[in-house]
Specification:
- The protein has 2 domains: about 90 residues, Thrombin, subunit H; about 120 residues, Thrombin, subunit H (Beta Barrel), CATH 2.40.10.220.
- About 10% of the residues lie in helices and about 55% in strands.
- The chain has 1 helix and 14 strands; from the N terminus they run ββββββββββββββα.
- The longest helix has 27 residues.
- InterPro entries: PilZ_domain.
Length: about 230
Amino acid sequence: MNSNTYRKEGSGKEKQKFSDKVLLHSRTVVEKEGYVSTGILSHIEGEMMEIEMSEYKSFDLGNPIELTIYSPVGTQRLQSTVIGKAEGSIAAIFPARALCGLEEKRESPRVRIDHKGILHKVFSETRELSTGPETFELVEDIQLKIRNISFSGLGFVAAAGPRLETHEQLEATLSLGFELQCRLEIIRQESDGGQSFYGARFCELDEAQQRALRAFILREQVAAYYKGKQEKVV
């Protein structure tokens, strides 16, 4: 089955749509200021791509680079940045939006992590006072352990505290090497051995929060990818 699809343009011409997988194993020219090398595009996941090359030592983290990818769907020219490096390859940002014709439905990468956070659960309590009953709004902090995270949400374990209900929204503080204040909506819940595992989605992250989260996920993704490659070699 051909993974490529087509769509009609306003002019009546059909424009080819393609999956990022079509780009794999393509010869790729990598250029930085004053230096050019050639490699093979070997891996794409989310916003990260890996280019295998013998001259990887000539590139450093943070280097802005220009890529020319000679793929089965044509020559693709992209601006990118080096975000990782290991024996025999470099990792760079995969600028999907710059690729004309790339399929829009791409999964958000989910990376495993071991970080902590706090949920702030708000509830009401009515107390009987001398002047009569009065309702107070209270906040209970629930400690959580984050097990995985993506651009859209996270999975976490809550060892104690009140049960969280599906579709419930709570304020949260996530410790990710930086403090991310956000709002989460619970979308699923599982119980196992006295612990409750929850899946939640982010609600309305602002632009600064999105940038910080994106940078964090990219760092974790690159580290996990190269760690996995190293373990396979060993």
